[in-house]
Structures are given as C-alpha cells and as structure tokens.
Amino acid sequence: MSLSTKAATRAVAAVAATALTLGLCAAPARAAYDYPFRDPALPLNQRVDDLLGRLTQAEKISWLHQYQPAVDRLGIGLFKTGTEALHGVAWSTDIDNGGGVVTAEGTVFPQAVGLASTWNPDLIKKVGAAVGDEARGYHAENPRLWGLQLWAPVVNLLRDPRWGRNEEGYSEDPLLTGAISTAYGSGIQGDDPDHLRAAPVLKHFLANNNEVRRDTTSAGLRPRVLNEYDVPAFRTALRAGAATGVMTAYNLVNGRPATVTDLNSTVRTWTDRPLFNVSDAGGPNNLTGSQGYFATQAEAAAAMLKAGVESFTVNDTNAAPTVAAVNEALSRGLLTQADIDTAVRNILGVRFRLGEFDPDGGPYGKITKDVVDSPAHRALARRTAAEAAVLLKNSGKTLPLSPAKKVAVVGPLADTLYTDWYSGRLPYRVTPLEGIRARSAAAVTSEGVDRIALRSGGRYLTAGTGAGADLRLSATTAGATEQFDVFDWGQGIVTLRSVANGKYVSRANWSTLVNNQEQPTGWFVQEQFKLEAQADGTTLLRYAGYETAYDWFGPNKYVKAAADGTLGLTVAEDATRFEKETVRSGIAEAVAAAKGADAAVVVVGSMPFINGREDHDRTDLGLAEGQRALVEAVHAANPNTVVVLENSYPTTIDRLQEKVPAILWTTHAGAETGNALADLLYGDANPAGRLTQTWPKEGAALPDILDYDIVKTGATYLYSKARPLYAFGHGLSYTTFGYQGLRTTAKSGGYEVSVKVTNTGSRAGDEVVQLYTHQHASRVEQPVKQLRGFQRVSLAPGESKTVRFSLKTADLALWDVTRGRFAVEPSTHDVLVGSSSDRIHQRATLQVAGERIPARDLTTATRAADFDDYAGVELVDETKVRGDAVGASAGEWIAFKDADFRAGVTGVRLGVAASAASSVEIRLGSPTGRLAGTVPVTATGGIYSWATAGAPVTGVRGRQDVYLVFRGALRVKDVAFTR
C-alpha cells in the first residue's frame, strides 16, 4: 500500500468517526478497504479502473496467458482459465503439477447432445446451476486448480453427423441450440445481475464442425449461411447475457484463422457486458506453425489482441513465450499500451463479477465442496437422463415392460458405463443391468461378446492379475489369465478386456501390451486392436490405436512375440500368427439368455473414446457389425426384443428399425444411466426426448464434410429433401396427443400462434410441441421448414393445454446479399405445428407483408462474396485483418442474379489479386451464355496485392443474370459495371 493511499484511508476513517460522533450519519459507515477495487459498493467500472491503474505493464502482459500469475503486493492470487464443464465439471490443468490434467469426480450429466434432446430449457438451466455450484465447490477446495472460467457450452451446430465431436454439441438447428445454450449458461452464471456463480465461455467460434485437418481447413461461409445459420447459435446466448466470452476455433473461416477473426465487430456487439475471450489450446502457435499465417509470433500476438482475444491458451503453464511475443509486438509498434489495457480491462470485467475481489467472495463465495455429488444433484442427473432419452420405435406396445416378467439384459453396454473426453469421473455407477435388476428380480444377463484365447507354438498370450502386467506368450493352458473378452466397435476395431482382472489391454507408454486400463481412454487411445484373419486360418493381432491420424509406427503395427515370449511391434509379414480359440460365443450365450426370458433388452452402442471424438471424425454411421449381428440373433430367438442404443450421434440402424419392435436411444448419460433407463423401460417415466438432428438412412449420400454451405448441399432438416430414417424432432411416447384449433393472431411486431394439445391416451406424459414455418415465394431458396419455437408440456390423461408461441415478423427475415442486411419479403408462409419436423398435425397460412428485394445495382461496387450462386470457388480473406473475397480457379464461376442495367453499361471493373496472369469472362444468362466481355488480369504481386482490372462490355442492358467465369487462378473482391 502506498503512503498516499494510507493517508487517504486514514482520512476516510477520521471523517466517518467524526460524523458518527456528531450524529450526522443516518446509516452505518462503510468499511474501509485497503484499495478502492476491493470495495463492492463502488461501481464495477470504477473498481476495474482502480485495479488497472495499479498494475504494472509487466503484470498486465503476464495476464494475457492462460495462467494469470498472482500479484502478491496487491493480495491477488493466481487466476487460471478453462475448467472443462461440458456436462458436469470434467477436468482442469494443474499449474502445481506442470500442467497435468486432473479429472473431477462429481455429477456427470448426459452428454451435451443428450441435454438438448430434453428440449427443456428450464431443466437445463437447473443442470447448469448444479454444474456451476460444483465448480464453486471444487474452487473452494483448490482455487489454483479449479478455475471459475468454465469452457462450456459447445454451441457449434451439428451440421454433419460424422463430426467426431457430435457428442459435444446440441443440435443442427440454431434456434434450439441457442435456447439450450442460453439455459445452460444462465444456470452456470446464476441470477445475480452483478455476480457470477461461474463464467461460461462458448466454444468454438466459428463454424467448427470437422476434425479432419481441423487447424488448416477453412469453413466457407457465404453471407446467408453465416448470418442465418452459424452466427445465431452464438449470438443468442450472448444477447441473453448467458455467456461471458467465446473460445476461438482451430479452423479458418473464409481463409482467415478463427484465432484472429474479428470478435470486436461481432460478438462484442451482441452484449453490453465485458467479454473475456480465449483461444483454443495451441491456437496462437498454429498461426505461425501449421497455418503459416504470420511470420513471427509477435505479429500473431498483435493480431489476436486486436481481434479481441484476451487470453492465450498455449505452452501449458509456460507463459514466457506469450510474454515475449507481446513485448516484441509492443517494441515493433504492432501494439500499443492501450491495446494491452483494453484486453486486461475485459479480463477484469469478468474476474470482478466472479467475486474474486470482494472481501467475502461475493454471493457465491460460501459454496463448499459439500455440493459435489449431492443427493439433489443425483436426483437431477437421474431426471435429466430420463428426459433426454428418445423412444425411436415402439410397435405393438412392447414398452413399457412388466416387472413381473423375466427379462434378459444382454449386450456389450449392458453392465458398464463409459465416460468421454469431457466427462468427470463417476463417483458411482448404476449400469442398465443394475437399474433393471432393481425393478425385476428375474433379470438375467450376458454381455454378448466372444471370449477368446490366442495361442502360438503351444503357448498362450498371458496377462497379469491385479493391476495387470506385460502380456507375453507364456502359459501352455488357457486359464483366466489367457482369456480376453472381445468388444466390437465397428470397422474391425476391437478392445480386449482381460478376464484375469477385468481391465483392458493397452499399449501403455508406447511400450509393450499390458492389461491395466479401466476403459479405453486418453488423448491417444492405445486400447484399440484388430484381429485380422489370414488365409491359412491364423490370426494377426494388429495395434490400431489412432493409426489414421498418427501413423508413428509406420508399417510396424503387428504384434510379434520374441523367443522369450515378450511382445513388440513389427510388419505383418514378420508378425506372430496366432490360433484364435473361442472359449465362449457371445451371441450363443446371449441367445440362450433371451430364449429363457419373456423379453430381451439388448444394450448396444459406442465407446466414446473410439467411435468419433475430438480430433477424429467418423467415416461410417453404422452400428458395429458384431453388435448388429448380436441384436439380430437375439431378436430371432425372442421377438419381444428391445434395443437400447447408447451413443452420441445419428446411427444408420435401418435393418434394426425394420425388425425389432422397440428402440430407445440415449447418450452416455452418467452414473444414473441405469436408473433412468429402468424408469423409462418400466413406465415410471414416459419418454419425451426428441432428436436434435436428422438421422439419415443407410447409404444416403452426404456432402463433403468440409462443405459448410448447407443451402447449396441440401444439408440438415432445413434444406434436405431426402427422406431420413428419423427426422429432426422425432420421438415417441407411451401415450398419444391430439392437436386442435391452430390459430394465428396478429400482434404488434408479429403474431401469436396458439394450438390446443390434449393427452388422448391413458398415461401422463410430456409432449414437445414444435412450431415450424415455410416461406412460399422468395428471391432465394428457402428452407423446407424451419423451427420457430417449441414447448415441452406435461399433460395428465385427458388433460388439454393451449400452447402459445410468439412469432415475430423479424424472425422470418432472410439475409439480403444485395444490400447486406436482413429483410422480410412479402410472401405466404405456412405455419406448421406438430410433434416433429415430419409429423405436422395442424397447418395454417400467414400473408406476411414485407419489402420486395430490389434488382441488383451492379453499377456500384458490389462485394464478390455477395454472389447469388457459384460453382467451385472458395471464400478467402481479403486482408489478414478483415474482409472476404472470392478465390477461383479455371472453369469456376460466380453469379449475380437479376441485375438491372437499364439502358446499358459499357465497361466493367474488378478488384483483383493474382500471382500469375489470368482472365475473367463476363457472360449473361448462364456460365456458358453470351460472352459480353473478357477482363484480362495481370499478376499483381500476390494474393493480398489488390489492383483494378477492367474491360469493355457489349450488350449488357436491361435485367440480366451476370456470370463471372474464371479462366485462371485469381482472387476477386468486388465488381462494378460502368456506363
């Protein structure tokens, strides 16, 4: 504390004492604080200004790294960003342990796609509150480990069902995604207007929906897709004040790394609250590494800060490279002190709201570790898991089951629960089998997996007991230590669980094989193998741990036993040839169990660390071949078969849909999975979850996973005209619902849509009432239908409720590329209300007044990226700071529809950049239409060296569709015709 501050403090205290003595104070004196920034009675901006003014330049710069060091002289402790909390507190990195990951053990809710499948924002707000409380509880125990900035939720749209991180997102629809993310974020934050329970950060801005080459691929977002689809998913929560920042994505967007995409002109304009934005892990180094976007880290750091990124998540706990880069940027004039102050001010805007600088820690400062895994949170997890499950099929009233009946519970997921990369540890486990056994004493079980032994030269592959041991070719008989259960995860990938200790075989520490893992796990999942049958009847054991992306072993992937029995990897030709002995047939055992039961429940699905996850997209949507064969065999043995499908994404189960009478889908839903499933299977809870993305049919053609233009490719329920296996919003119930009396009433700024919904069945249940619209006439291609609202309503048998939606006229706007803004066109709109996007029960129409989008005026400079149609081109960065352009190669084209040239034009000018000479043809009506002129383009000096190229044109008059056809590689930023 400085002398002047001490004097000021003494003066304040003296004045207060005098006032009390004279009886001049009507209220108690405020406590004296060492520094004004510690005084919670002062306005936030005043407190921030005070602390900002006390920090040195070095301290400010040090706070730009993910580990913001303590400032002991001001009594400020370490602040770390990024506790993972996607569906419960998951893990954090430990500065006191060199940045190692520490996993939480607490309440694990259903995976994010399951949370959204509840279609219940009120419930998800409660889930968010529980997660925020547990984050506070961990923080109270160890604030250096468990930070209060939570990296959740993920709001990237589930545009492509193959995305490896599908489990982390909510929906393919922006409205539903916005509603669920707002609920989750609001719950995490709490309802105090000035304080935060915890600080949610939205991931990953922007258009991050592929893992293949995720740090070098560019998501091409033309203006309509950007503004109508991707942006709303992020904007909703920020406008609602339900998030405190965004994490930038690894990918590029229109050629510019998302790490330096301008956040100041986007996300900051959606809220009046300070935002504390962060990069994704390693993102700053990608700018000079894999992306090669900047020559030096100083340039990269300057660009990030100017773009609105406050925190550099990079180099683990080592802040030195970040500090050096920022200091160099300052010395080179790439940054100013004002840039640093702006970033730190934004950081403080969130840190203050977390109560860090309040003497009592703020209103949430008294939460302790006792909240973690509390009985209330367990009950909430059970309810959420039940509400998230989706009944896909239920013919012949197969479900619910009767507790009096004997049930065979079989399948590879029947008696286990798996966690994922963003899960915490489960403090307890209620498996499907355990949940069912609690309802029916007559439950029998089989995992339905083969148990094998591998023998070569008279010796068996032998594992260890207890904690496990290195596998070796050793024993001459096949006891428990020589037997392994084989779990099939599809496309030949299996895991091997040792019978000796119940643990999975892993290539531990990149060394030999050892049976020591509770489940497949880790960033590099080393528990994956293939059993490759050979023509001579033998089998090769192939290590298949992430071989696609990380081919570190080259051809050396096959297991070879040395003379002493120890194992290593070699090429196929040199590998040990094993004789595979089937000790027990999984299908035969499951069939036997099913034959002796009144009903069979087959629990199949995915392994979250294997079947698609961060850094690995799926290449196949099918259920594992062995699991499908298991279901078919059990169904043949017992027609009263229920399939519980436990995974995190759409799955092509066409054959099972045709054969088995009942299918219930759930995500990996945490410790209460078994209880929730039993609640549903026995009718104590009535299924009401709904799918949040389209499930395509087997063999359906999907667009390139790197093509983000859902309009052009006809992707998602919005634009697809294909008939899916299950539609967006699909989900069944044990009761039935009737819809009556759809009404649309004009209101100020829009309409009220109301419909009466009645439970026409004999059971209480929830219905998710969904409102869609479709615009008839438009200048552009409109969605087949689009979700405009939804409500989950609970109804007793015979009960009716009138469900009301507010439909704003502005909600019906499209992005008008001719003027760069939203516009509502005059048109007829279908108003569709139903229980899913393909089960519409009531229809009406609205005549919506609006503005006719005028013909294009191409005589003023028009951005090339604002085209109406295209073939083959890509959207690229005009400069490294801002602006989009069109990058083209020979034969590709862009089109501007309905341009009005009136009496005609005589020339055209293009803003171009090119590394070599090329040309652009101006054609009318089509890419092969009449040639109106050819613009020669000379080399400009590079892709960011812009110049003007022009040429005369002939016959360009009246209303025309204009095509720019490219005859070489170049970039175009704008076009203008001249008279």
Describe the structure in your own words.
This protein folds into five domains: 1-32; 36-370, Alpha-Beta Barrel (TIM Barrel), CATH 3.20.20; 450-584, Trefoil (Trefoil (Acidic Fibroblast Growth Factor, subunit A)); 735-848, Sandwich (Immunoglobulin-like); 862-978, Galactose-binding domain-like (Jelly Rolls, Sandwich), CATH 2.60.120. It is globular, with a radius of gyration of 31 Å. The termini are far apart. 21% of the residues lie in helices and 27% in strands. 53% of the residues are buried. The model is unreliable at 1-29 (pLDDT under 50). With 979 residues, the chain is an alpha+beta fold. It has a six-stranded mixed beta sheet with strand order 13-30-29-28-14-15, with helices on both faces. Strands 16, 17, 18, 19, 20 and 27 form a six-stranded antiparallel beta sheet that branches. Strands 40, 42, 43, 45, 48 and 50 form a six-stranded antiparallel beta sheet that branches.
Q: Care to give the gist of this entry?
A:
This protein has 979 residues and is of the alpha+beta class. Keywords: Hydrolase, Signal.
In whole angstroms, how far apart are the ends? Answer: 72 Å
Annotated CATH architecture of the largest domain: Alpha-Beta Barrel
Q: Provide the β-strand percentage band.
A: 25-35%
Bulk shape: globular
- Which structural class is indicated by helix and strand composition? alpha+beta
Q: What is the CATH topology of the largest domain?
A: TIM Barrel
Helix content: 10-25%
Question: How many separate helices?
Answer: 19
Gyration radius, rounded: 31 Å
**CATH superfamily grouping of the largest domain:** Glycoside hydrolase, family 3, N-terminal domain
Largest sheet: 6 strands, mixed
CATH class of the largest domain: Alpha Beta
Which residues sit in consecutive blocks of at least 5 with pLDDT less than 50?
1-29
The strand order across the widest sheet is 13-30-29-28-14-15
Number of domains: 5
